Amino acid sequence: MKKLFTPFEKLSTTQLAIINGSWVALLFLFWYIVGKVSETHLFPTLGQVWDGFIGLYNEGLVVHVFNSVWLCLRAIFISIFISLFIAYLSPIPLLQFLSKTVSKLRYLPLTGITFYLAMMINSGRTMQIWVLVIFMSTYLTTSLIGMIKDIPQEEFDHARTLKCNRWEVLLEVVILGRVDYVLEIIRQNLAIVWMMLVTVESILVASGGLGFLIKNSDKFMNHGRIVALQLVILACGLLIDFALVKTRTILFRYSKI
Q1: For residues 129-147, b (16+ Cβ closer than 10 Å) or e, as one string?
Q2: Quick check: pTM over 0.85?
Q3: b/e per residue, 6-35, with b = 16+ CB within 10 A?
């Protein structure tokens, strides 16, 4: 028992599973008690959330989940390509201004981005993708530039002692030598895109998606459906995060960040 309250104590996988399961059980118990005792009913009960989930499933929840995930994946792939291209060229003095400018654009409000994209793009779905691309690219580029700056000088010196020219140093140390770090950065920034998905999907409700379902449920004040959708969004995000973690573990078994 003392180990449970000792800082930096390492527990077995079974012990951690029991602790996590206990916290989840306490959360649902608290939720159940609040639903029974509360007089205001500001938060839906477990039964209302379950009914909302059943109703959403019967109305095509799986299709909307697929639409949201597909939208997110397309935006991610484009963002990765743009961000890697800008970040990998940032060591070149002539292009440093470009990378720094893209990094500073992360302070640009989402409303302003949507306004100008609406004037240039006719397709609502394409506009949703590019809003997410711009939003993620700024944060992803910032993280990648920070990763490059944190590379120890010893690694550059070691590459130079092996007779690598400057372009070979860029390839071997920055690009190939940090692929595992790139996957971790993508995983962290993916949470930002997934969080913004609901807001972006509300731009065009005709395309469907989880954002459309939440907006529609909020219009009719159906809190059970809203919480059910939030749980679905959380579960999808955790599954994508788990897939990226497993991918990094399989490809780079001996890498630790």
Answers
A1: bbbbbbbbbbbbbbbbbeb
A2: no
A3: eeeeeeeeeeeeeeeeeeeeeeeeebeeeb
Q: Are 184 and 140 in contact (CB under 8 A)?
A: no
Q: Six-digit token pair at 36?
A: 């029974």
- 8-state DSSP, 43: S
- Separation CA 72–CA 68 (nearest Å): 6
Q: How far apart are the first and last CA of the chain?
A: 30
Domain ranges of the chain: 59-209
Domain spanning 59-209: CATH superfamily: MetI-like (1.10.3720.10)
115, containing H or E segment = helix 110-120
CB 214 within 8 A of CB 198: yes
Q: Which residue, 128, 257, 145, is CA-closest to 200?
A: 128
Looking up tokens 């009719």 gives 220
Q: Over its length of 257 residues, how does the chain's per-residue pLDDT go in tens digits?
A: 677 777 778 888 888 888 889 998 998 888 777 766 665 566 787 788 888 888 888 888 888 888 888 888 888 899 999 999 999 988 888 888 888 888 887 777 766 666 667 677 777 677 888 888 888 888 899 999 999 988 898 988 888 888 888 898 888 898 888 888 888 888 888 887 787 777 777 766 656 677 778 777 777 677 788 888 888 888 888 888 888 888 888 877 766 65
Query: DSSP character for 174?
Result: I
